[in-house]
Amino acid sequence: MQTNCIPYYQEAKTKPQPMAVLNGLKEHDIHIGFSTYANLLKRCTQSRDLVEGKQVHAHITQSGLQPNAYLGNILLNMYVSIGSLPDACQVFEKLVKRDVVTWTSMIVGYSKHGCVEKAFESFCQMQREGVNPNTITCMSMLKACASPRSLMWGKQVHAHINAAGFEPDMRLATALINMYAKCGSIKDAFDAFRQMQQEGFESDLWVGTSLISMYVKCGASDIALEVFHQMQQKGVELNKITYICALRACANLSALAEGRELHSSIMEAGLGTDLWVGNALIDMYAKCGSLVAAHEVFDAMHDRDEVSWNTLIGGLAQHGCGKQALEVFEQMKCAGVQPNEVTFVGVLSACSRAGLVDEGHHYFSSLCETHGITPTDAHYGCMVDLLGRAGNLNEAEEFIKKLPFEAGPAIWGALLGACRIHGNVKLAEHAGEYCLKLEPQNAGVYVLLMHIYAAAGMWDGVARVRNTMKERGVKKELGRCWIEVNKRMHSFVVEDRTHPQSEVIYAEVDRLIEQIKEVGYVPDTRFVMHDVDEEHKEKAICYHSEKLAIAYGLLSTAPGTPIRIFKNLRVCTDCHTASKFISKIVGREIVARDANFFHHFKDGVCSCGDYW
User: Which residues form the PPR repeats (predicted)?
Assistant: First the structure.
């Protein structure tokens, strides 16, 4: 009789709800068995219908049928898939027999709800009860552990995988790499990638592209490019997504030479006219400091969307080319392309970095009035930055007070940065208090406050902030500067002597300092955060990472070519001043990208007009 139930609900043109099926079967006095309930529960899972699923579950209970392992797992999977963890736990506790599918379903359920510790406890408990995890279980656990706080558990799962002796599995290897990368353990991720290669897996298109994208997102763009080159060497046929991910890696590293080679490969592959690829090329060239090349790509595009325009506007803003950015914005409107939220972030940033206060007010007003866009945190933050940089600190503070919501850390941070520029200690303390209330572990806020106190000679304030950092376990991010020479990245930190050519580099820095002092350079020691005499302050800033990178660039690149450096933090004021003088005496352009935007030093002048 049980087989008759299937035609009953399959003959209908549209499948009735599971409970309608059950009621129909009861009316026809048709026996309802495990397979019928299993099919109906699967339908509830597919439609994500929790109400119907619970009713079917209740029907099973009322029928007196004791679910076997198969039906119990389907019931458990339904609750896990729909997202009802409490119901899943109740089913799990009542199951007499739990196999690897049962435990894996619970691990997935805990993972979906962020209960990583519970997932790991289940992973351990199943083994204590004699159930061995399979590759699907391990992949589910690795996915659960893919965050920095879960690295310890992820490593234990990795150890189990090694001990279990699984057959080499591409999906498991990829999950392992992904876990380490998302935990921020880039070395472990790369070791896992190497292991995958040793086991005979080739980096096919899908795996290789996924790895490149993952490494880029995790800040390991250098490894991303290495994976890309391996794919090229092995003759993997690359697609546009692979190239786009590799271009992002070049953008992150300011690796212009690599980016240019990629551009050539893209043209050879016949992808030069692709819209997405074109947008990625504009972004890469802008972030590598070549606005001319970015504009050339933009001008050569047959089709452009709002991303194309936004990327160019944002790139111009980042380089301090405010008026040019506004010109492109007007061209965008004339071309019939509707600006969006991102467009106005670029426009307002351009106004802020070029000191265009009136224009900034005009465009901010047009957000709602003309374009019907509700301002976001980013737009308000740009306005605070605009007013603050221009020295209108009181107006910036009043602007924050009138916001329709509580100001976030980015908005208060913009005001704090402006206080540093204009030396307003009182307002800086007020803004800093809000910043630290919202982000007590943000080292940049503490450093800004110490700089402001140091510039004002308030050494007790510097000591107080430094002690607070120690008490809260906050560590200052180490300033690091990179320069690309012969397609290889060289990095420097303050007073770095690890480079094999350090002696020559230091001698070059000393020579440059002597020469620029002769033409008017005066060391800017205002922000040295130690109460020492002027001689020691000058020594403290002499071998900053920017100066070391520039010196190495002068020693290692052809005369007359631009020197391009990239710093992870804000360029220091003294290095900014020194770079202007160096560009003049050596007759070479120095392009410096920092955490905020670009500086183009040429003939003793910076493109920012010292408005930064």
Answer: 99-133, 169-203, 204-238, 305-339, 340-375, 442-476
**Owner of token pair 């589910």:** 140
Q: Are strands 488-493 and 598-602 parallel, antiparallel or unpaired?
A: unpaired
Strand partners, 368: none
**Residue 601: strand pairing partners:** 590, 606
Q: Is the Cβ–Cβ distance between 574 and 524 less than 8 Å?
A: yes
Instruction: Quick: pLDDT tens for 359-405.
Output: 999 999 999 888 899 999 999 999 999 999 999 999 999 999 999 88
Q: What is the DSSP letter of 219?
A: T
Total number of residues shown for the chain:
612
Q: What token pair was written down for 534?
A: 């002027």
Q: What is the pLDDT of residues 18-37, one digit of tens each?
A: 666 656 555 545 556 667 77
Distance CA 438, CA 172 (A): 39
Q: What is the pTM of this model?
A: 0.74
Tokens of 475: 């560590």
Single-letter code of the amino acid located at 92:
F
pLDDT of 601 higher than 50: yes
What angle, rounded to 10 degrees, do the helices at 443-455 and 459-472 form? 170
Domain boundaries, the chain: 480-606
DSSP, collapsed to helix, strand or coil, labels residue 421 as: helix
- What's the chain's average pLDDT? 88
Rounded to an integer, what distance in angstroms lies between the CA atom of residue 335 and that of residue 89? 57
Sheet with strand 598-602: strands edge to edge? 488-493, 480-485, 563-567, 590-593, 598-602, 605-606
* CB burial of residue 394 (10 Å; 0-12, 13-18, 19+): exposed
